[in-house]
Structures are given as structure tokens and as C-alpha cells.
Amino acid sequence: MRPWSERAPLFEAIAAYQSQTVGRFHVPGHKARPEAFGPGASYYQGLLPLDVTELRGLDDLHHPEEAIHEAQQLAADCFGAEETFFLVNGSTVGNQAMIAAVCRPGDLLLVQRDAHKSVIHGLMLAGAHAVFVHPRIDERTGLRGGIALEDVEEALRLYPQAKGLLLTCPSYYGIGPDLESIAELLHARHKCLLVDEAHGAHYGFHPELPGSALSCGADAVVQSTHKMLTALTMGSMLHVQGQRVSREILRRILGMLQSSSPSYPIMASLDLSRRYLQEQGTGAITSALAVLESWRSGIARRPRWSLARISGPYRSDPFKQLLYDAAGKLNGYELQAKLEESGCYAEMADAGYVVLAFSLVSRLEEVHHLLEALDRIAQQEQPDDASRPSSGYAAEATGIRQGASFRERISQPVPFSIASIHGQTASRLVPLDSCEGHMAAEMIVPYPPGIPLLYPGERITPQIAADLRLLAGSGARFQGHNVTELGTIPVRSSQLAEQETFE
Q1: CA 100, 103, 109 angle in degrees (round to 5)?
Q2: What angle (nearest 5°) sits at the alpha carbon of residue 122, between those of residues 116 and 125?
Q3: At residue 78, what are phi and psi to the nearest 5 degrees?
Q4: 3-class SS at 18?
Q5: Cα–Cα dist 14/191, whole Å
Q6: Which helix (H) or strand (E) holds 415?
Q7: For the packed helices 149-158 and 179-188, what is the interaxial angle rounded to 10 degrees?
């Protein structure tokens, strides 16, 4: 009999159901017949047998007792949690559930300011107050390195009633702070540490990777298993340890926020992704790190291109590579577009960098294609005498975006409420050139990475206005209000702005 860890109980249960089924008299309506998908038949054919529903033996995500229960137990053992919840709505629902489990309406939570928009939405749904702790900026790269221990300590001194801290580690750029020291500080004050570890599901599985948030003492951790591991998109996990976060409340909230018809292909992929990590993880990571070494060596032989190297007391993920034009001719968005013309699609770009996300299954031939594409771009886009000199260009461009907007280390309390959405009609549009001093009427979200530059009711400072103009001028994409195309910002009417305070 195979060891328990080598099993994939949910996938195996679905496979067993499929092998004995002669008629599907249940939803979904496609009945596993690919012809129902027309021109997409060949693409969906292999996936359809996995797309089932809550049948006997296949368990129920919202009341797991069989295969899903076993799969979640295996995941908890693998990732070092006491209990794990499968998520089919991505890390978004995990962030919202963590906040709602810790905060009642009016409670205060310390929050890393460059959090994902799902955190802001979670604060709204919970009716919580946030004290934003702003990240420190790495001077060499202009990137946010994470929040500092002394800033957390000061925030707790100012707001001892805070329930805890929610931070992001690693960032979209693969950077994070010293979690262990932050966890020790919070636990000494009887506070909880919640971590959005969406981009760090692979952490802790190889000596050359940072330790996981759970191993550093976090109380609840959300991971996007689909981002850096091998699950299907939207497949994520919420891990819990200790007694500071109520698991019963988490179950109830997840039952409210997650679909009552969860995707079995996504859940089965979580099961298989965990199994792959346990069986192949160390070897697969070692092989992928060798691919990365070939990539870095290739870039070192091409002086036109450079890779950002983070400095200071930050943890860095080798699977996130930050590429920039050392000649300063192409900004990050322009370089991203040029790479796409050669069939190489990056994770994201900003004004300075292109972010390349490698993974456990990245291959050497992909690196060769990417290096060849960069060679073609270098031939087509020759720098002229007016181009910016090498290393400071990307740091300066990115630093405007990531640093200037967040000068204040610790904010005053900001109340959030779902009711604020209903007030968005009392707004008007102002041009980018004259938006300073107004209060934002909507969340302004460059995407990717989905980090709100403004939340509803936030005052637009001169630094944020400059940041917005830089993004628009560089061709950044936005979710919701498209600042780049429209050249405007939705702001609250003057009467409303005068009536509302966020202190």
C-alpha cells in the first residue's frame, strides 16, 4: 500500500466515479461530452470528466467528510499547518475570510499599505478600521521591500487595541520582510499575524528558498497554489495554526463567500499539486534553479539588459526575475510589449521593470527563446546618445511609483464599510493634472499587480498625483476606471469630501 502522502484522494475518487459511470443524470449540463463545446472540444475534452458535483464519495467542500477532508488533511501535513481549507475563489476569498474572522465591525487591524485590492474589499465587508503601515523602499531598486519591525512596534504602541497585522509576503516582485521577528513581536502582545502569501506557496521546500510564513509563526496564511505551484487558476489554500484565529468562524465565512457549486477540477488540481510538491518538490526546484542560473548567465553576457538585485534585510524569491533595459531606452511596459511580439509573455511590468515568473516546471528551452527575443529587441531598438545611463534608470522610474506615494510610515485609522459603495454616485471626474487635494471616489488599481494606489476616501497627495501621471504616461493598465485612456480620476464631490473624515 502506498504511503498516505503519495495519495491524491480527491482526484482518485473522481477517477473511480468516472470509471464506473454509465449515465450522468446530474449537473453540470455538459454531461462530459466535448462536442457540446464546438470548436473548443479538443481543448476541453480531457478536463470534462473531472467536472462533477457533490455526489456520494466525492464529498462536499462546505461539509467535508470524505475525499476532500482527506485531501485537506494531506495539504495541512505538507505545508505545516494544523488545518487547511481549499479555496476555489482564489486567494481573494482567503484574504476576505481572514479579516472577517478576526475583525468585528469597528475593530482595528494593522495592514501593510501595498496590500492587494482583495484586502481592501475584505476590510469593507468586515466594516473594520485599518491603520496602514507603509513599506520601506529599497534604495538600489526603488522597490518596496516590506514593512519594518520598528514600524510595526510603533503602530502597536499608537494603537494597542489592534487585533493584529495583515501583511503581504512575498510581494508580486518576490520580496518580503523578516517575518519571524514580526511574528514574535505580535505574539508577545497577544496579537495575530495574518499573511497574504499568495506568491509564496513554494517557500520552505528547498534550502535556497525563504522559509514559509507558517514556519515563521504566522497564525493564518493564504497561498495561491496556482501562482507558483501547479494548481489550476483560482486554486488556493488557507492554512491555520494555533488558537488566535477561530477556525469555526473561518468555516462559516468561507461557506458564505465561496461558491455553493465549487469546481471539482480546481479542487482536484489542488490535491495533485500538493502530491507533486511532496513527491518531486526538492528535485523539481533544484532543476528549476539550474534553469534560472542559465538565465542569469545569459543576461550577464548581454550588457544591454540587467536584473534587479534587492539589498537590505529582505527575503527574495529567485523565481521572480526583474528585468530592465540598462540603456534606459525602453520602460517596463514598452519592453513587455516587445517581448510579447516575440511570443514571450511576462507576468507583469511597471514603469521600470518587467517581472518574469519562473516556476518548478520552467524549462531551459523557454530561457533560450527569451534570450533570443532580447537579442532581437536589442538589434531593433538601438539606444541613442540621449538614452539614460544604466543602473539608476529602472530604480528611479519604479521608485516614483512605489515609494513617493507612501511617505507616511503609519497612517491614522481609516474606517471601511460596504456602504461606501452606495455613495459613489456623488462623484465627478477631474483631469489628472488637477486631481491633487481631492478625495478618491473609487479604488484606483493598476493591474497587475492589483495593489490599490488609492482607496475610496483617500486624499490625493502631490506624490500620488505624480505617480498617477507617471503610470498613465507609461501606458499602465488599470482595473475599473481606466486612468491611462481617460486621463481623469473620479473624486468625491466637494460637499461630501468636506463632510467625511478618515481619522
Answers
A1: 115
A2: 150
A3: -65, -45
A4: helix
A5: 41
A6: strand 414-415
A7: 20
Instruction: Tell me the DSSP string of 299-345.
Output: HHT-TTEEE----SS-EE-TTEEEEEETTSSS-HHHHHHHHHHTT--
Give me 359's grid cell: 516556476
Q: How far apart are CA 331 and CA 393, in angstroms?
A: 9
Phi, psi for residue 447 in degrees, rounded to 5: -140, 130
Summarised one tens digit per residue, pLDDT across range 155-189 is: 999 999 999 999 999 999 999 998 999 999 999 99
Amino acid identity of residue 493, one-letter, is S
Residues 6+ apart with CB under 8 A from 137: 143, 144, 145, 399, 402, 403
Asked if 191 and 164 count as a contact pair (C-beta separation under 8 A), the reply is yes
pLDDT at residue 389 above 80? no
Distance CA 344, CA 338 (A): 9
Q: What nine digits make up the cell of 186? A: 505580535
Q: Are strands 136-137 and 488-492 parallel, antiparallel or unpaired?
A: unpaired
Tell me the C-alpha distance between 480 and 485, whole Å: 12
Q: Which of 121-125, 410-414, 494-498 has the lowest mean pLDDT?
A: 494-498
- Please answer whether residues 371 and 365 qualify as being in contact, where contact means their C-beta atoms are separated by less than 8 angstroms: no
Q: Give the C-alpha separation, 393 to 452, whole Å.
A: 24
- 309 class by beta-carbon count within 10 Å (0-12 exposed, 13-18 middle, 19+ buried): exposed
What is the identity of the amino acid at 196? D
**Alpha carbons 219 and 240: distance in angstroms, whole number:** 6
Q: Which DSSP category does 459 fall into?
A: B
